[in-house]
Write a structure and sequence with these properties.
This protein has about 290 residues and is of the alpha/beta class. About 45% of the residues lie in helices and about 15% in strands. One of its GO terms (molecular function) is 4-hydroxy-tetrahydrodipicolinate synthase activity.
Length: about 290
């Protein structure tokens, strides 16, 4: 699973001002990521506004992304939900060509027990043709995947190969790293805490702000991977303000505005998400200047 070491990015889904998918901007975004040193790409995670896409639109984005990447980087598809049978169906029907893994968020809204979470991922693991990266993001799901549940799944299913951890809970991170199988990977799901997570033993990051600043994010992760935390700290500190700005009015509203200023797509979102405030726009513009953008 070395292809999931390093910096990955959860791609936004660019839209035209009428709300339709802007495939030209998506192609430009993909090429921008590859040229700037990203190690792998995630298509249709949360940042891709997946919840507002139809099944047909999802298929079109996955197919287009695979063709545009054309084998230049590993690709991960985001397929998750709170209806286990539906997620199993989607995974069975997924056209895997060009993809290396599936990122699957833990069930949201239902608030399952740890046993329910285990059984959900068990059902997915038993049908998936690709390795699975779990995704623990309690701020969105309303429940936490415990370290014990993560390790249990990692030990019971060899095709559950990693977890993207966005809980912000260093006790969970530490327990996973202590108890996991050797080959199982811990991946940061939070831009601002990637450096300390990698200092503990995480192998990289799936980033949001990397959409707009892929070189800076990939440099940060590379330096951490090399153990050069002194130099990485400078990049980490420089990124902190724009990371905050990209989330203050919701994700991906902030990073979409940053991308518009860079010249990669419009900052159009689908309801119920809306654009960032005028004050946030001005602050993002100012911070981009500090990166030479």
């Amino acid at each position: 699973m070395n292809e999931f070491h390093g910096a990955g990015v959860a791609l936004v889904t660019p839209f035209h001002t009428d709300g339709s998918i802007d495939f030209e901007s998506l192609a430009n975004l993909i090429d921008y990521q590859i040229a700037s040193g990203m190690n792998y790409l995630v298509s249709l995670g949360t940042t891709g506004e997946t919840a507002t896409l139809t099944a047909e639109e999802k298929s079109a984005v996955w197919e287009f992304t695979s063709k545009q990447v054309n084998g230049r980087l590993p690709l991960v598809a985001g397929i998750g939900g709170n209806n286990t049978l539906e997620v199993v169906k989607q995974i069975k029907e997924f056209a895997i060509e060009g993809y290396s893994a599936i990122l699957s968020v833990s069930p949201y809204y239902n608030k399952p027990t740890q046993e329910g979470i285990y059984q959900h991922y068990k059902a997915i693991a038993e049908v998936s043709p690709l390795p699975i990266i779990m995704y623990n993001v309690p701020s969105r799901t309303g429940s936490v995947v415990s370290a014990a549940t993560t390790v249990r799944l990692a030990r019971d299913f060899k095709n559950i190969v990693a977890t993207k951890e966005a809980s912000g809970n260093f006790a969970i991170f530490s327990e996973i790293l202590r108890d996991k199988p050797e080959e199982f990977l811990l991946i940061s799901g939070d831009d601002p805490i990637t450096l300390p997570m990698m200092a503990l033993g995480a192998v990289g990051l799936i980033s949001v702000v990397g959409n707009a600043l892929p070189k800076e994010v990939s440099d940060l992760v590379r330096l951490c991977s090399e153990g050069n935390f002194a130099e990485a700290k400078g990049i980490h500190e420089h990124l902190l303000k724009i990371i905050d700005l990209c989330f203050v009015d919701g994700n991906p509203a902030g990073v979409k505005y940053a991308l518009q200023k860079i010249g990669v797509g419009q900052d159009t979102l689908r309801l119920p998400l809306v654009q960032v405030t005028s004050a946030t726009k001005a602050a993002i513009e100012n911070e981009l200047l500090s990166f030479g953008k």
